Amino acid sequence: MKLIFPTDPLISADIPSDYPIPPIGEEFYIRFETFVTDPEDWKKVKGLLDGEGLTVERVEDGKIYLYEGQKVDLQGTIESDEYMPSIVQYWQEHPETKPDSK
C-alpha cells in the first residue's frame, strides 16, 4: 500500500499492506515519520500534520490518497466505530506504526 500526500510535487510513502485503512472522510492515523524517510519530504508532511491532520480522500489501485483537514459531515460514522478497534489492535501488534499522542 502507498500513501499519497497532498503536496506539490506529490510525496508518497509505502506502508504495510495489512495496515487498517479508515473509511473515506476519516482521519488517517499512523506514525508517518516511520514511513516518510526523506528529511525534505518529512518536513513537508509534518507541515500538513501540524495543521488539521490528514484524511482519506479515496483508495484506488493500492494507493491511499490523503487530503489536509477533515470532512465534518462524515465524522462518527458506523464504519469509524468499526475501524478504531482494528487500528488499536494493529498498533498493539506493531507499535512502530502507532502515532505519538498529541
Helix and strand sequence: EEHHEEH
Q: What class do helices, strands and sheet pairing give?
A: alpha+beta
Terminal CA distance? 26 Å
Shape: globular
The Rg value, from CA coordinates, equals: 13 Å
The overall pLDDT average reads 87
Please characterize this protein's 3D structure.
The chain has 102 residues and is an alpha+beta fold. The protein has helices spanning 32-35, 39-49, 78-93, and strands spanning 2-5, 11-14, 54-60, 63-68. It has a four-stranded mixed beta sheet, covered by helices on one side. A hairpin with a 5-residue loop joins β1 and β2.
Topology overview:
Blueprint: E1 2-5, E2 11-14, H1 32-35, H2 39-49, E3 54-60, E4 63-68, H3 78-93
Parallel strand pairs: 1-4
Antiparallel strand pairs: 1-2, 3-4
Keywords:
102 residues; alpha+beta; 4-stranded mixed β-sheet; globular
Short description:
The chain has helices at residues 32-35, 39-49, 78-93; strands at 2-5, 11-14, 54-60, 63-68. It is of the alpha+beta class.
